[in-house]
Specification:
With 155 residues, this protein is mostly helical. The chain has one domain. The radius of gyration is 19 Å and the shape is globular.
Length: 155
């Protein structure tokens, strides 16, 4: 059985983390990537419901729309929920969730590579995928692994 603990930093710990980020560049990079891959997927996921930034339905490749059993809009609502969950997962456990986000971004890259006229967006999302993989790598230093609880031998 795996155990999960969520640590909520106190105000003094935030100050300590910021001071550490100033003096330790790798930790600063980790914090920036962690914050970005926490907040941005949540914001983009929420926007799938409101279309404030753009009409997201137009970003789904036509071949995908033709094989899914729902409309492009309904698919984008599901995608929004997935992105929100991904952002929350990165907030809680970046060591593992960053790999999920990287895989998700790989899927987005494939979508855009198969949709003529969106190659620039595919390249941008490839860069984001590399950043997610960088977060996963840095998280091996700064986010402790989950450990299995071993059952005590019967007395």
């Amino acid at each position: 059985m795996t155990t999960m603990t969520v640590h909520v930093p106190r105000t003094g710990e935030f100050r300590g983390a910021l001071q550490r980020a100033r003096s330790e560049p790798a930790y600063g990079a980790y914090l920036m990537l962690w914050a970005g891959f926490t907040l941005l997927p949540i914001l983009f996921g929420l926007d799938k419901f409101f279309n404030i930034l753009t009409n997201w339905d137009h970003y789904l490749a036509p071949w995908i729309v033709s094989i899914i059993p729902v409309s492009a809009h309904q698919a984008m609502l599901v995608i929004g929920v997935i992105e929100i969950v991904a952002g929350v997962a990165v907030a809680l456990k970046p060591r593992y969730a960053a790999f999920i986000v990287a895989a998700w971004l790989a899927g987005i890259v494939i979508n855009f590579l198969t949709y003529s006229g969106f190659y620039d967006v595919a390249l941008r999302d490839f860069g984001l995928m590399l950043a997610a993989l960088t977060l996963a790598r840095l998280a091996t230093l700064y986010d402790p692994a989950w450990h299995r609880r071993s059952k005590a031998a019967p007395a």
